[in-house]
């Protein structure tokens, strides 16, 4: 009976770091550093401590820890367009990775509005936010001004390429190489007149993908003439309009590489409305591997972005910038070319 009473007393009180240390088989100091996400704790130890904390019923007082560390433990994620189907999956992985690192996220739908985004920047500079995750080429002007003046700010861009000299860390794929791989595949299928449905001409991803198209055509000895380039956009309606125009043309391309999957969806719909079959009359390929691409009629050849890895590595990189003041750098991840029926010559 006395033993049972001692156990009841132990369970009745709040678990301590000493309890976690005893369960995990490490020191209380190691537990403290692991729960705070501080180095030099190995991933294996961090996971063991996290499991021990869960078994003990220990919950980190994040508010108290934030006051102690003089940090908000909040990362700002700037989203230019929540209607873009690229972002929900990315955001889910960002949120999970941030939580695992002991951070919350604040999502700001900027809609490329400088006045709105500058309000969030003011909060960052005042200490109400710890760092910023950019998910597009756009960066708030106030941040760019500070960076140009030599300030080192915890900012990471993912999903969209970051030029190396601009003072912002990045997690991205090689957009030009990925586009090259798509067009190289089309050329190897025997298509000779390969058109490109380009994105907005000032968008950095659209520029990189156009360069990949041009380089692949050049390497295969094929023409990249102006009649094979269509400046459109990233939306379904942009692709639909291009498909309708191409359907009226007397000199059809053999294949079309679209700058993203959304425009490819619209293109295929526009071609079908004009009585053209994909891939029998025109092959089509996209970029992004959105959720509907695998079930489209026909399934779409495209480039798969490693969104989960992009999200995780960008969050980890941002945490390192916040907590350890690490240097800015660019991480290039591998893409994957998914070959499906839309580009296979029958």
Q: Which key phrases capture this entry?
A:
13 helices, Rossmann fold, disordered N terminus, 346 residues, 12 strands
Brief account:
The protein folds into three domains: 2-60, lambda repressor-like DNA-binding domains (434 Repressor (Amino-terminal Domain)); 71-174 and 307-335, Response regulator (Rossmann fold, 3-Layer(aba) Sandwich); 175-305 and 338-343, Response regulator (Rossmann fold, 3-Layer(aba) Sandwich), CATH 3.40.50.2300.
Can you tell me about this structure?
Keywords: DNA-binding, Repressor, Transcription, Transcription regulation. GO terms for molecular function: DNA binding. InterPro entries: HTH_LacI (IPR000843), LacI/GalR-like_sensor (IPR046335), Lambda_DNA-bd_dom_sf (IPR010982), Peripla_BP_I (IPR028082). The chain has three domains: 59 residues, Orthogonal Bundle (434 Repressor (Amino-terminal Domain)); 133 residues, Response regulator (Rossmann fold); 137 residues, Rossmann fold (3-Layer(aba) Sandwich), CATH 3.40.50. The N terminus is likely disordered. It contains 13 helices and twelve strands. The strands form three sheets. A six-stranded parallel sheet has the order 2-1-3-4-5-11, with helices on both faces. Helix 9 packs parallel to helix 10 and helix 11 runs parallel beside helix 12. It is α/β, with parallel strands linked by helices.
Helix and strand layout, with pairings?
Layout: H1 2-12, H2 17-24, H3 28-36, H4 43-56, H5 62-69, E1 74-79, H6 87-100, E2 104-109, H7 114-125, E3 131-134, H8 141-148, E4 155-158, E5 169-173, H9 175-188, E6 194-198, H10 204-219, E7 229-231, H11 236-247, E8 255-258, H12 261-273, E9 283-285, E10 302-304, H13 307-324, E11 330-333, E12 336-338
Parallel strand pairs: 1-2, 1-3, 3-4, 4-5, 5-11, 6-7, 6-8, 8-9
Antiparallel strand pairs: 10-12
């Amino acid at each position: 009976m006395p033993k049972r009473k001692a156990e009841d007393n132990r369970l009745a009180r709040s678990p301590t770091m000493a309890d976690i240390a005893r369960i995990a088989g490490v020191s209380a100091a190691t537990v403290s550093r692991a729960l705070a996400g501080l180095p030099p704790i190995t991933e294996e130890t961090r996971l063991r401590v996290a499991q021990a904390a869960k078994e003990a019923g220990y919950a980190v007082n994040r508010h108290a820890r934030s006051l102690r560390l003089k940090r908000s433990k909040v990362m700002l994620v700037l989203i230019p367009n929540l209607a873009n189907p690229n972002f929900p999956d990315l955001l889910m992985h960002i949120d999970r990775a941030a939580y695992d690192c002991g951070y919350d996220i604040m999502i700001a739908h900027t809609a490329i509005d400088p006045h709105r985004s500058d309000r969030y920047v003011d909060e960052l500079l005042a200490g109400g936010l710890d760092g910023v995750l950019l998910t597009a080429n756009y960066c708030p002007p106030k941040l760019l001004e500070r960076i140009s003046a030599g300030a080192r700010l915890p900012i990471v861009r993912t999903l969209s390429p970051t030029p190396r000299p601009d003072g912002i860390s990045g997690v991205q794929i090689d957009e030009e190489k990925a586009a090259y791989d798509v067009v190289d595949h089309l050329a190897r299928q025997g298509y000779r007149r390969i058109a490109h449905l380009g994105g907005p001409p000032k968008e950095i991803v659209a520029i990189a993908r156009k360069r990949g198209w041009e380089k692949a055509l050049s390497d295969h000895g094929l023409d990249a003439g102006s009649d094979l380039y269509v400046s459109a956009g990233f939306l379904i309606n942009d692709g639909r309009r291009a498909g309708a125009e191409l359907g009226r043309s007397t000199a059809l391309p053999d294949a079309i590489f679209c700058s993203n999957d959304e425009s490819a969806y619209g293109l295929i719909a526009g071609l079908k409305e004009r009585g053209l079959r994909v891939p029998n009359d025109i092959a089509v390929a996209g970029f992004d591997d959105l959720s509907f691409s695998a079930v489209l009629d026909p399934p779409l050849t495209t480039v798969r972005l490693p969104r989960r890895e992009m999200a995780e590595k960008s969050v980890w990189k941002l945490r390192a910038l916040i907590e350890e003041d690490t240097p800015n750098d660019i991480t290039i991840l591998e893409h994957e070319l998914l070959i499906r029926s839309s580009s296979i010559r029958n």
